[in-house]
Specification:
The chain has 211 residues and is mainly α. The protein contains ten helices and five strands. A hairpin with a 5-residue loop joins strand 4 and strand 5. Helix 4 runs antiparallel to helix 5 and helix 9 crosses helix 10. The chain is globular and about 55 Å long.
């Protein structure tokens, strides 16, 4: 098993069938479902640049109306899984961030790290999943493309009683760098429940758009 680092994804429990092919059945191409449409008007420069760089016609098509839909994200994800499957790997994006990559022959990707890396580069070039996912996620949680969300993270901490009302952006920057304050709680409790979960959610969704 190999874990890749990517930005957190937006998923839901609603299931939709994968691509109708033997490889799709084998690699379970319906594991992550997106649940929201994203207005990407304030991210068009990045998207247009990526579409031009890769010559990705599908990317050009899905951003033409300034909206990336949940269904379009599902399709990009399925294409990414199919790309990996064609190369002998199973790719599973994780809702908590990152992705798990396994070889279909049961061996470890670490047995051939260069080959696994080449597949990752090739599939990203073909599908643009990493770029599209990053911008889609940012557009959902921050549709106005606010450049600095630190004040909103601080306010979220305050609103949920995680810090004193006098807590500042400077305090936040110190704590996030040194894993102190709220981040000590997150590290101790984890992001799944309790105060740890709230610290995590304030960090990834300070504007409250993804709840």
């Amino acid at each position: 098993m190999m874990t890749l680092a990517i930005l957190p994804m937006l998923g839901s429990c609603a299931g939709v069938g994968g691509i109708d092919s033997p490889a799709a059945t084998q690699t379970q191409l319906d594991e992550v479902r997106y649940s929201r449409d994203a207005d990407v008007r304030n991210y068009r420069d990045d998207l247009d640049r990526e579409a031009a760089r890769t010559g990705n016609d599908f990317l050009k098509t899905i951003i033409a109306d300034d909206v990336v839909t949940a269904e379009e994200m599902d399709e990009v994800y399925r294409r990414t899984q199919q790309c990996y499957a064609d190369a002998g790997y199973k790719y599973t994006a994780l809702q908590t961030g990152g992705a798990q990559v396994d070889r279909l022959d049961g061996k470890s990707p670490s047995d051939d790290p260069r080959g696994a890396n080449d597949v990752a580069i090739s599939c990203e070039e073909k599908t643009g999943f990493g770029i599209i996912q990053r911008i889609y996620t940012n557009a959902v949680r921050n549709p106005d493309n606010i450049k600095d969300l630190s004040p909103y993270v601080v306010q979220c901490f305050i609103d949920h009683g995680l810090v004193d009302p006098s807590y500042t952006v400077a305090d936040y920057q110190r704590d996030s760098a040194s894993r102190s304050g709220p981040y000590r709680i997150l590290d101790q409790e984890g992001p799944q429940s309790g105060k740890g979960k709230q610290v995590y959610e304030c960090g990834i969704d300070p504007l409250g758009r993804m709840g």
